[in-house]
Design goal:
Blueprint: E1 5-10, H1 14-25, E2 31-37, H2 41-50, E3 55-57, H3 60-65, E4 70-73, H4 80-89, E5 93-97, H5 104-115, E6 121-124, H6 131-143, E7 147-156, H7 206-215, H8 221-246, E8 255-261, E9 266-273, E10 277-285, E11 293-300, E12 303-309, E13 320-326, E14 332-338, H9 345-357, H10 368-388
Parallel strand pairs: 1-2, 1-4, 2-3, 4-5, 5-6, 7-10
Antiparallel strand pairs: 7-11, 8-9, 9-10, 11-12, 12-13, 13-14
Length: 398
């Protein structure tokens, strides 16, 4: 790479302010933000003031005029397809926050559009780039046939106290991750958690309208919330990591159970992978919890591998890896690895993307084909949740 790649940011919500902008300011030698785009002109102007040489605008024409070669899309999920398609039409590469989309028809359309374009789509599975996650996946892969259980546990406040200290003065977050009407608040999915799926009654919530379009009229509000938030908005990250461990379509067609409670704010599901391995995943939204908790554990025939990750908004510490083994001679051994803040997913993802844009020989980055595979797992789980409530499944289960 001969110099920094000029890029534009589209969407100036909490993820951009809390994660992307701090990282990008420290890596101007790799990625140079030349334009910031948002429907909220005040937010765009504020962001431009923090980035030397960047211009503010409301559409991608500003980005092209400023010389951008690529776009970081951090708008609400239901707007991703439109932003990504426009960027591809302009021959721009795109790093798009997850989920790329929760609508498989949109996803397939994006894949076709990418094939016909000079631009490339990279899906923002940032956790997958975290150095602690990469080490965890490598150890789990090495365990191979000795794996007996993989479990995922997430407790997520999904509340303003997680990120408001990182926001600019006067920042007003849209409720529960997006008001669905613009491009300014991250990658969330609804106007409120209990009714995030909406009911299509013309309440102006574009995210709810999108979920209505995907799931149809017969699915309950609880299942809609589980689909848009617990599964499609959170656990899709871990589903991608599980596929990295298991290889290929390791979860597809293997769903054994799924349950939800607390109006869809909590979900538990599991898969049987062969005769000797079970995979469990659970998500709980708990707004009054002060701290985010995420743990993935692999249990093997003779030990455990435990990954613990901080809040995605944390800037002062990284992940932790614990390895417990029983050796052949019966002696137990344990070691602990603490990873620094700069090893976090958001930072490492941007480094990897910069390398790809600059033509370096980087490992394959997450692509729309992966997003489609992971979305199919989300769809299978949602179908089982709907069936448990007596509703016709919105998706066909194998």
């Amino acid at each position: 790479m001969t110099g920094p790649v000029p890029i534009a940011i589209v969407g100036l919500g909490r993820v951009t302010w809390a994660a992307h902008l701090p990282a990008l300011r420290r890596m101007r030698d790799e990625l140079d933000v030349v334009a910031v785009i948002d429907c909220d002109t005040g937010r765009a102007a504020e962001a431009a003031r923090t980035l030397e040489g960047a211009v503010a605008g409301q559409d991608l024409r500003t980005a092209v005029a400023a010389g951008a070669r690529a776009v970081l899309c951090a708008t609400p999920w239901h707007t991703h397809a439109d932003v990504v398609e426009e960027a591809l039409d302009l021959r721009l590469d795109v790093l798009c926050e997850k989920p790329l989309t929760l609508d498989r028809r949109e996803l397939n359309r994006l894949r076709r559009r990418e094939e016909a374009s000079a631009g490339r789509i990279t899906v923002g599975y940032m956790k997958r780039h975290d150095l602690a996650v990469r080490e965890f996946v490598e150890l789990a892969r090495k365990a191979g046939p000795a794996l007996r259980q993989i479990s995922v546990r997430i407790v997520d406040p999904n509340a303003a106290h997680q990120f408001m200290s990182l926001m600019p003065p006067g920042f007003t977050p849209h409720p529960a991750g997006g008001n669905g009407t613009g491009t300014s608040d991250g990658n969330g999915g609804g106007k409120g958690n209990a009714d995030a799926g909406g009911n299509g009654n013309g309440n102006g919530n574009a995210a709810a309208v999108a979920v209505d379009r995907i799931l149809g009229p017969d699915v309950s509000a609880s299942v809609r919330t589980a689909y848009a938030h617990a599964l499609g908005g959170s656990l899709v990250h871990q589903i991608n990591i599980l596929h990295q461990i298991l290889g290929g379509d390791g979860l597809l067609g293997r769903l054994s159970h799924a349950d939800l409670w607390d109006a869809g704010n909590a979900v538990a599901c599991g898969w049987r992978h062969g005769e000797r391995l079970t995979v469990q995943a659970g998500y709980l939204r708990a707004p009054r919890h002060r701290a985010y908790r995420e743990e993935i554990e692999c249990v093997t025939e003779s030990g455990r591998i435990v990954l613990r990750l901080p809040s995605p908004y944390a800037q002062d510490h990284g992940g932790t890896l614990l390895v417990h083994e029983s050796r052949a001679d019966g002696v137990a051994a344990s070691h602990r690895l603490e990873f620094p803040p700069e090893s976090s997913g958001f930072v490492q993802q941007l480094h990897a993307w910069a390398g790809q844009l600059g033509g370096e020989d980087e490992a394959a980055l997450p692509c729309p084909a992966e997003a489609e595979r992971d979305l199919r797992v989300v769809e299978e789980t949602t179908a089982l949740l709907a069936e448990a409530e007596g509703a016709p499944p919105p998706f066909t289960r194998p």
